[in-house]
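---------- Forwarded message ----------

FYI, see the Electron transfer flavoprotein alpha subunit record below. Original note from H. follows.
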Amino acid sequence: MAVVVLQDKCISCGACVAVCPFGAIEMQDNDKAFITEACTACGACIETCPVSTIVREEEEKTVAMDKTQYKGVWVFIEQAEGHIRGVSHELLGEGRKLADALGQELAGVLIGNNVEGLAKDVFASGADKIYLVEGAEYSHYSTDGFAAALTDLITAYKPGVILMGATNDGRDLGPRVACRVGTGLTADCTNLDIDAETGLVAWTRPAFGGNIMATILCPEHRPQMGTVRPKVFKKPVQDFNRTGEIVRVTSKIKAEDIRTKFIELLQVSAASCNLEEAEVIVSGGRGMCKLENFQLIEELAEVLGGTVGASRAAVDAGWKPALHQVGQTGKTVGPKIYIACGISGAIQHIAGMSSSDIIIAINKDADAPIFKVADYGIVGDVTEVLPVMITEFKKLRQA
């Protein structure tokens, strides 16, 4: 839908120019408003125009795809070193809800080398079927190999919906596959639902820096694809009595088709940064005041067997690397316990940790927004509160 100005009705008031958040409206030489290519079709000008001369113009649709052929909900199963990543279980749980609402089957897509043994976990998390592609060329993730395999599966079996984790692999694979099959992709989703009016998947994701939540539909192309942030959904309770059908698909990819070559896997000391899988996270924000005070955060995390997190303000200040950042522009987490130290609670940070089971906030400002989402709150100076907590937890551990 394009936004246009009906030139013959424009009264040259300029109200639309002032209200456009993107500076996409200009007054022409004839004193008529004109919408430039910078327009995002947000509609702010439509509501402002006093004479209703700005309208949405429906663009001609030329899509010839037979959408009735596309059925079923698929989840791309990420696996590494013989284990399925947590986000795949989360998406199987949510995919089960979508499939049930649509009256369709849920399938997992498992690509790898000697990974059939993981099928029982996929079925236990809710899948009815598994598309299995195995081969030595899939021993390690590669863009060329996995993109070709998934594209071939989509072309052959025509799923209606595909869910992928918004991880390093998912963010690499998703857009490439979407482009090859000629569909769209909604990235970094934080909620999924079925639109009651159209029956389409309603993909919800943050927009404009996390200040609003946008719901996106894909009405004209299939499959409907999206990547979903880890930890925004809970893992389903697995039922290992569940079974299903395994569809073994012969690999068409050859080693020479993959432009990259795996040389060596280097294990870096990133365990302390594995926020997505952590059960306890202790995060520090601007209220820590200086780098040296982050030692208290690290010490408490160590005592609790947890991981160190940080707000964007702390990362921007150089107190912690970006790997530790929690929030809209960092990582979305859902630990059993999240301790926010000196974090005010900006909406962007809360969006990244609000699904935690228990939230404990420490802040000297009693009116800080973080207390509105916290299960327990301590009003006080973190540099005084944290040493006491560390001492008490050490006593408990010794006992």
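H. also flagged this: The mean pLDDT is 90.
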